[in-house]
Amino acid sequence: MRRLLSLLAICLPLLVLSRTATAEEVVLGLSQDQVAITATFNGSEILIFGAVKRESPLPDGAPLEVLVTVSGPQEPVMVRRKAREAGIWVNTDAVLVDHAPSFYTVATSAPLTQVLSDTEDLRHDVSIRRAIRLVGAGVEDGAAFSEAVIRIRENRGLYSLRENTVAVDQQTLFRTALSMPADLTEGLYATRIFLTRGGEVVSHYETTIEVSKVGLERFLFNLSRQQPVLYGILALVIASLAGWGASAVFQALRQR
Amino acid sequence: MMIYLPIAEVAVNAWIVLGLGGLVGILSGMFGVGGGFIMTPLLFFIGIPPAVAVATGANQIVASSVSGVLAHLQRKTVDLKMGAVLQAGGLAGAFCGVALFNYLKSLGQVDLFVTLCYVIFLGVVGGLMFIESVNAWRKAKSGAVPKRSRHSPIHGLPFKVRFRTSGLYISVIPPIAVGFFVGVLTAVMGVGGGFIMVPAMIYLLGMPTKVVVGTSLFQIIIVTSASTMLHAITNQTVDIVLAVLLLIGGVVGAQFGTRIGVKLRAEQLRILLATLVLLVCGKLALDLLLEPSELYTLATPGRS
């Protein structure tokens, strides 16, 4: 499987898309646009690289900065908060965060505040804070709950802001290595690349990276969803055989 | 060596999981407990989502119990008749337990209830067993003959049946009642119930300790098999890859555990089990009493 992946990485040509009529455009390449989760999957590193295509000479003023975001599938998250009641800690409040990506990373070529102005952040939902949407919280301090989602997922390495990790050469070539953790969920990972000058977005480009289970992982996952009875019986048969096998082996060893 | 688990959707270190299975397997073979009450918290600790941990733990216990029962069968220390009677009560209890569980779920706070159940039962069972077994050990040391009270009120009940392996001639009502009670707890707490069944058989039914372990394991196989199927069908949270890793460690551990158990004196065995039960109880109680470092918890609806 690994060999196939590296083959993919070599074969994938530069993707030339994005025909917007801006002065500067992104020409993008990914080392791989698919992440295959195999039995021994232990995270993955994806190289995102590209060039800036421009018809006119290099503009004066603020230098070109690059910002890359990768977002896992959006899903609702139930956040519960504990509080002390009658001497013990129990879940008291719960808030449903409607949309939170299972994985989110922002890589920039300079500190985020320099690369992107607040208005542009608001418009494109780039920073981690903006990427999480909390609608209709039933409690007063709803923000504390979305903060908790960010804090917990940052600690688990699922959300990250990695400033100064995009290398930009001659305001034309850029590249960044993106490490994805081992506990990925399946789905399409939306990837966005923004070119900015003085905090303003001058061009952006979007593509997706597909993360999916393959081989045995795929087979077992599908079986558990489509044939749950068969899957359960399979689990029990394996368990009984293993128990019987160990007993038989140990008995044979003891009699020798 | 890292292994990606298809259902849990996390990568774990295979050696850690094998070791975990082995540890729980040893306990299972020694004491006749399924080990679910230790396994489940340990799986949480290595990052397995709770729903997957509970379901897969049940599947692993099937394997270690089969392994343990076979080892006990060779020693003729399984009372199949008593096991069947307990099971009849247990199945009825499990149905009522599921109804109770769903009722609590509709009220919310089911997690708290389950934790409180654990703390109370582990505390009471562990405490009583510890005191009793320490006393029995002292008596045995001072040379006094341990006296088993054979004439409690339960011996006056009707429907008496002879349980040859256990050397008992008692009414079937107490075993069915014990089975029923454990069945309810099994459904609510998501464990095999060995840690309650074992002391109940010793103290309530007066069964000899040696027979208790094998009989408890026999009973646990059926309970945890049913539980595995239920989880696989309704929640799809049984992770076969995780189960295989755990049970490879578990079945081997159970064989060693059984051999260790045979070598120890009955009182020592009970003191050890009591200590273990009290430790887990203490840990759970502390979790409730001390301020957690993270007040918030996340759950993904629909995905465990």
Automatic annotation (TrEMBL), chain A:
Residues 1-23 form the signal peptide. The keyword Transmembrane applies. This is Putative transmembrane protein (Alph_Pro_TM). The chain crosses the membrane at residues 229-253. Keywords: Membrane, Signal, Transmembrane, Transmembrane helix.
From TrEMBL, chain B:
It comes from the Bacteria. Keywords: Cell membrane, Membrane, Transmembrane, Transmembrane helix. Pfam families: TauE. One of its GO terms (cellular component) is plasma membrane. It is a multi-pass membrane protein. The chain crosses the membrane at residues 12-35, 42-62, 82-103, 110-131, 176-204, 211-234, 240-257, 269-286. Its main location: membrane. InterPro entries: TM_pro_TauE-like, TSUP/Inactive_protease-like. It is found in: Cell membrane; Membrane. Belongs to the 4-toluene sulfonate uptake permease (TSUP) (TC 2.A.102) family. This is Probable membrane transporter protein.
